[in-house]
Structures are given as C-alpha cells and as structure tokens.
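Task: sequence design from structure.
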C-alpha cells in the first residue's frame, strides 16, 4: 500500500512541470477502440488508472505499447465483448467503454461499477442516454449487457451535466447513424480534448466545451496522433502546495484558462499569481485569508476535484470559511483526517465549516480517496512535525511522482513502500 512521510515547515520553491491529464486520457483510451485504427498518444501520464485502462484494452484484444509518456494502440485485433469484472471494480470510470464498444461492435458486457469512496456514483444518465440511442440494455446479477443492431443518432437532454455520461454519448454517437445532439452537456476541458482526438481521427464533433454538443456518425476513423492536454487538477494541487507553505513556485505546461476558478479562490486567500502563455508563478501569503464561500460546481465553476486541497489550505486560514460540495454526496472524508492534525472543521451533509487554526500538527493519517489523500500531504507540508499518510495507492491513481516533485521543490518528504 505504501505511505508518505512529511516533515512540515519548509517553504516550497522552484519549478514543476505538469503531466498529461488523467481525466482526458481515460476517455481517449476508450475512444481508441472505436475505429480499429492505430493511435499514438503523447504526454500520457504514468498513473495506476492508465495502467488499468491498458489492461482492459489488452483484455479486449488490442495491442498496446508504451515507452515513457508515449503510447501506441492498435485496436484492429479487438475480439471480445466483455470488460473483465475485476478491472471494472478497480476503476469505475471503465464504464466509459460502453459507448465506444457499442460504436465499434454493437455489444458490451460490463459489471456494474458500483460506488467508490466519494459517493454511490450511479450511472442512470449513461444508461438512459444509450437506450435513447437505440441500445438494448439488460441489467442483471450485477452485470450490464448492452446490444444494438446499430445506434441511431438522436437528441439527448441530460438531467445533469455529467462528465462521464457526456463522454459516453460522444463515443456512442461517433458510430451511430445520423446526428446526435447532447443538451446540458458537461463543459469540462477534458471533453474538448476527447473531441480533438476524435476529430483528428475523422469524427465530426462540434461544441465540446459548451453545453450543446453535436456528433455526426461516421463509418471510418483513420490513424491518429494526439498530444494530451495538461492536468488542471494536478496544476491546482501544486498551486495549493505553494499557497500553504508561503512558497514561490513556477508551474509549467498549464492552460491558464482551465485554472481561472482555482486562481480566483487562491487570490481571495491572499496568493499572488502571475501568468504568461503556458506557465504561472504563485506566491503563497504570510497569512491565509478565509474564504466566505466555496461552492463546487460543474466546469467552469470551482472543481470538486480541488475541494479537499483548498480545505487543507483554509484549515490554517485566519478566519472561518465555508465549503459547499454540490457535486458528490460524500466527499468530506479527508475532514476527519485533517481534524487529527488539529484542524477545526465541522461538516453538515454537503456543507463544511472550517475555522482556521494557527498551526496544524503532524499526525498519522489515512488517505480515503485520490484528492483527499493529496490534501493530507499538502496539510503535512505546513504542519509542525511529522505527518504520515497511509494508503498512498489512492494518490498514485492520479498523481505521477507526487512526492518526488514536492521533494524537488524543497519538501522534506519520502515514500515508504509498505
Ligand atoms: C468525472 O467523474 C471525473 N472522473 C471526476 O474526477 C470528477 O470529480 C467528476 O467528473 C466531476 O467533475 C473522470 O473524468 C475519470 P459525473 P464522473 O458523472 O464522470 C452524478 C478525480 O478525482 N451522476 O460528472 O463520474 C454523480 O453521482 C475524479 O479525478 C448521476 O447521478 O462525474 C455525481 O454526483 C473523481 N448519474 C455527479 O453526477 C449518472 O449517470 C457528477 O458526476 C452519472 C453521474
């Protein structure tokens, strides 16, 4: 399982390069099976979730080779319809293969992904949309069996701008006959990256990044190269690392526009942020201002994936802050761990009230999910004494070399294999 040990108190200083985005590469890896074509992907992050996606591609018969951050996939040999249950259980976002498999071969069998640490994570919006596109879906014994003689494009109104459901509909729409229109689509930048990859392969998609996306079905996709967009949540996490240690960090290979909501809140907390074309400098304040209200929202609102990190920062703010987690039902598990470190946090359902304390003290803590685990490491950077973060495999799902990058920036940090 592994643990990270941090001795707090060092101000971080230096430069960090941001890797490719986990939440962009995962749907793109699913998309590589649609055309039976070859895809060469650049800036692919080395993450546990990417490894699981590669295992699924291999289990379906696809050929995958990768070296450092370049990955080559040949999906021509695909010859299976079932996604292995143990892999779906390891990574619930493998549900994204449904739309791609229906586009490629008109059938897929996948176990119900089930909930995870941050909530029940239903997939009703995915299934409703795929049925509207003409898929016959049977749910029994914990499995979902989807079949179609051919998907037919249609207009789909999403009840909620679900990222995964939007992506699944795009992947299904590429192989459908006619035109599919998604209304109330998710606007996350990772969906623009998926559109870019697919259009380079010959798909005809427009509107990604807005709430209306149009997909015209095509019969063929060609070989394609794609450079994965940088990870805005990893970038935001390092921004908080600078903020919480009164540091001065230059973050390279970012898309400034993707960080607007995060930057706005960190400026409210007292950070100085200077930007140029593809990088930014963030200087953490001596005193961290409280933030009256942070509401997590679908993009372009403040991202739920940054909620735990900003809660760690506000734990040592000079006043009381409120966080409203509107996206997930149960995403405050890191609060009880921060309280072990001396934070003064009270949660009421999806509302957390954080009363800043002068100083956190190092403690033995446990990561309960990906972003909560990262937040505990951030808190450890500022805490007095030694902080241990157990179950670091959560963090490895979404951060490449997290502790090594922090060490390069001056943190007193190490990773201990279990
Ligand atoms: C994606 O998850 C991201 N994961 C999440 O990042 C991110 O937190 C989330 O979008 C919101 O931005 C990937 O991209 C792999 P949703 P996804 O469907 O697609 C409810 C991380 O830390 N919902 O937009 O699962 C759902 O329960 C991860 O990198 C339904 O009710 O998110 C949730 O409350 C965590 N029915 C809300 O919508 C459905 O059919 C948002 O979920 C689908 C979703």
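Answer:
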């Amino acid at each position: 399982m592994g643990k990270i040990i941090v001795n707090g108190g060092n101000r971080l200083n230096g430069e960090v390069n941001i890797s490719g985005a986990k939440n962009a590469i995962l749907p793109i890896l699913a998309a590589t099976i649609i055309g039976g074509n070859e895809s060469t992907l650049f800036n692919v992050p080395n993450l546990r979730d990417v490894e699981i996606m590669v295992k699924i591609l291999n289990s379906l018969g696809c050929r995958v080779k990768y070296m450092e951050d370049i990955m080559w996939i040949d999906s021509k040999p695909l010859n299976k319809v079932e996604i292995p249950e143990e892999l779906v259980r390891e990574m619930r976002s493998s549900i994204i293969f449904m739309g791609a498999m229906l586009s490629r071969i008109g059938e897929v069998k996948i176990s119900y992904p089930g909930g995870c640490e941050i909530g029940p994570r239903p997939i009703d919006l995915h299934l409703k949309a795929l049925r509207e596109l003409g898929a016959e879906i049977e749910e029994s014994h914990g499995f979902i069996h989807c079949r179609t003689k051919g998907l037919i494009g249609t207009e789909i109104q999403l009840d909620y701008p679900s990222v995964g459901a939007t992506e699944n509909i795009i992947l299904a729409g590429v192989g459908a006959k006619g035109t599919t229109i998604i209304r109330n689509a998710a606007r996350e930048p990772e969906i623009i990256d998926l559109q870019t990859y697919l259009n380079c392969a010959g798909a005809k998609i427009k509107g990604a990044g807005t709430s209306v996306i149009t997909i015209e079905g095509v019969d063929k996709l060609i070989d394609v190269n794609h450079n994965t967009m940088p990870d805005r949540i990893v970038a935001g996490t390092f921004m908080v690392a600078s903020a919480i240690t009164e540091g001065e960090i230059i973050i390279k290979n970012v898309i400034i526009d993707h960080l607007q909501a995060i930057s706005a809140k960190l400026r409210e907390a007292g950070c100085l942020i200077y930007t140029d074309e593809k990088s930014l400098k963030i200087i953490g304040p001596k005193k961290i201002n409280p933030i009256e209200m942070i509401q997590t929202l679908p993009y372009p609102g403040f991202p739920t994936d940054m909620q735990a990190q900003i809660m760690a920062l506000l734990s040592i703010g000079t006043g009381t802050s409120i966080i409203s987690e509107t996206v997930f039902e149960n995403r405050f598990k890191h609060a009880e761990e921060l309280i072990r470190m001396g934070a003064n946090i009270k949660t009421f359902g999806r509302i957390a009230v954080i009363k800043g304390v002068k100083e956190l003290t190092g403690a033995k803590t446990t990561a309960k999910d990906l972003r909560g685990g990262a937040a505990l490491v951030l808190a450890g950077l500022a805490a007095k004494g030694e902080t241990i973060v157990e179950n670091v495999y959560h963090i490895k799902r979404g951060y490449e070399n997290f502790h090594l990058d922090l060490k390069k920036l001056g943190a007193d940090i190490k990773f201990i294999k279990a």
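The pocket of EPZ is lined by residues 22-23, 26, 93, 119, 121-126, 160, 162-165, 186, 304-305, 327-328, 370-371, 398 (CB under 6 Å).
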